[in-house]
Amino acid sequence: MTVMPLLKAMKAESTPATRPVLRLSGVTKAFNSVIALDNVSFSINPGEVVALLGPSGAGKSTIFRCISRLAEVDAGHVTVLGQDVGSLDRRALREQRRAIGLIFQQFNLIPRLTALDNTLSGRLGHVSTWRVLLRQFSMADRQIALAALDRVGLLDKAYQRADSLSGGQQQRVAIARVLTQQSRLVLADEPVASLDPASASNVLRVLHEIARERGIGVLCSLHQTDLALHYADRIVAMRKGKLVLDDRTENISAEQINGIYGEPA
Ligand SMILES: Nc1ncnc2c1ncn2[C@@H]1O[C@H](COP(=O)(O)OP(=O)(O)OP(=O)(O)O)[C@@H](O)[C@H]1O
């Protein structure tokens, strides 16, 4: 099968469900005397890009950690793809973590591997671990990965080492990996913080497009409010552990945005 028909087939099978892919209900988390999250509730629907804003120390990283249960909540619930994260046993938690696509500020690619091999590592949840370790991927897996690289505009770089790519290109490989993983929820922790403005826009545009196309819900922490207003469907803003704004981007004024960062947190 060539790359394009496979890409269409992947689109067809990923019909968006209607229930939220992520829901936080009354999530509270304290570290000793510091209340990092104070009764935080919001949800993300399939196909929706939600920008998570807030000054340093507002609680953004803690939200990511509670979603992947790297931190246990003190109260409230986190529901990922319909499952209460807190109720999962170790095996179910491992499976759920594999279903969540992760995009980090520092790309987290394996530098000496090609763009294609890095993209193929997104098949980890779909094929046995030994196949991944020995890089024994089937032709179908390779086609899925090549289609994903094509989608992010990097098919011509498939056999180039990751460390020879620009930052923006590496981040697009990370998006291709998420596509190959066929995740329905993507957590992007400051994905464009280390990119120049043009590359940052390009990465967020691709992220927004694939969210729409595949019905993927994206939670993306950002420090650049202009990019959030341009590429996010909704903005969720935190301040001192409290959720202070949750609205569609088109309803949000410059004043509201400035208010998030107004005084030091
Ligand atoms: N492991 C920890 N131990 C103690 N305090 C913590 C821990 N993790 C976070 N905190 C505190 O919880 C609060 C929220 O921190 P968090 O890292 O979630 O903020 P943030 O919005 O991600 O900030 P930044 O934008 O700087 O990354 C801060 O006051 C922080 O000092």
If you had to describe this structure to a student in words, what would you say it looks like?
Helix content is 38%, strand content 23%. The protein is of the alpha/beta class and 265 residues long. It has a single domain (21-261), classed as Rossmann fold (3-Layer(aba) Sandwich). It starts with a helix and ends with a helix. The relative contact order is 0.19. The structure holds adenosine-5'-triphosphate. Residues 31, 34, 36, 54, 56-62 line the site of adenosine-5'-triphosphate.
**What is the quaternary state of this protein?**
single chain
- Give the percentage of residues in beta strands: 15-25%
What is the alpha-carbon Rg in Å? 18 Å
Name the strands of the widest sheet in spatial order: 6-7-8-3-9-10
How many distinct folded domains? 1
Write the CATH fold name.
Answer: Rossmann fold
Counting DSSP H or I runs of 4 or more residues, the number of helices is 10
Total number of strands: 10
Poorly predicted ranges:
11-16
**N to C succession of SSEs:** HEEEHEEHEHHHHEHEHEEH
Hetero groups: adenosine-5'-triphosphate
CATH superfamily: P-loop containing nucleotide triphosphate hydrolases
Largest sheet features: 6 strands, mixed
* DSSP helix fraction: 25-40%
In CATH's first tier, which class applies? Alpha Beta
Overall morphology: globular
N- to C-terminal distance? 54 Å
Classify the secondary structure makeup into a structural class: alpha/beta
CATH architecture: 3-Layer(aba) Sandwich
Average of per-residue pLDDT values: 89
